C-alpha cells in the first residue's frame, strides 16, 4: 500500500479535489490518498483578477466570483483556498512559507511514499520535493537540524509549473532529483504547455506524458489505469496512456505524442481563480 500526499489546485480545497479525482481514487486499490487544505482562504475579490483574460475565454469574472461567494456561504466545504497568492507579474508567491509549514506538520504526522499535485498544487509539490532534498535552504523547515521527512520516492505533477519567487531560487539552482511524472494538457489555457516546460528544466529525473485535454487530471480509462499503476509502483515500466506507446518509467524521459482516440476529458471546470497561478 502506497501513501500519497495530495495537494489541490488554486481555488480548490481538499474536499473539492478529492471529489474531482474520485474515479482515479476508485481505480487505485493499493493507494491511500491523504488530502490536506492549503492555509490561505480566497475571497471573492481574489477571484476577479484578470478580466481581460476571462473575456478572451468567454467568461465573466464578476458573475463567476459572485457564484463562488454564494456557494461558499451555503456550504463551507466549498471554501476556495490557495498555497500562495501570486503578484500580477508572477514573480512572487505571497504566503508560500506558511504553506510549507502546513506541509511540514503533515510530514511529521506520518510517512508518505510520494506526493500528487494539480496545477498550483503540482507546482507546490515540486517545491516540497526539492526542499526535502535540500532542507537547509529554509531552516524553519528543519526539526533539530534535520528534515521532517525523507525525500519522496516519487512526485506526480499534473498541469504543474515552476514557482517564480526569490524563496525558490536556491532550490531551482540545483534542481531536484525526485522521480517525477509530469502530466501536461496540450490544450491547457490556464497553465500553457510552454510554462510547464520550465518546470521540466529543473526536474532532473522525469517522465513526461501529454494528453489532448485542458486543465484537469485526465480521467479516461487508459489514464486511470496508467496513473493507478504508476502510483502503486512508480519504478515499474508502464505503458503510456496515449498512442499505445511504451515509455519506461525507469528512464523518466520521452514525451509521448497524443493520439485523438485517447483524448482525455475530466470534471475540472475553468474558473477565474484558476487563471492566475
Shape: globular
CATH topology: Rossmann fold
Query: Oligomerization state of this entry?
Result: single chain
Q: What is the architecture at the second tier of CATH?
A: 3-Layer(aba) Sandwich
Distinctive features:
277 residues; alpha/beta; Rossmann fold; 12 strands; 32% helix; 17% strand
General description of the model:
The strands form four sheets. The chain has a six-stranded parallel β-sheet, with helices on both faces. It is built from nine helices and twelve strands. It is of the alpha/beta class and 277 residues long. The model is unreliable at 50-67 and 245-275 (pLDDT under 50). The protein has one domain (2-274): Alpha/Beta hydrolase fold, catalytic domain (Rossmann fold, 3-Layer(aba) Sandwich). Strand 5 (85-86) and strand 6 (93-94) form a beta hairpin. It comes from Coprinopsis marcescibilis (Agaric fungus). This is Serine hydrolase domain-containing protein. GO terms for molecular function: hydrolase activity.
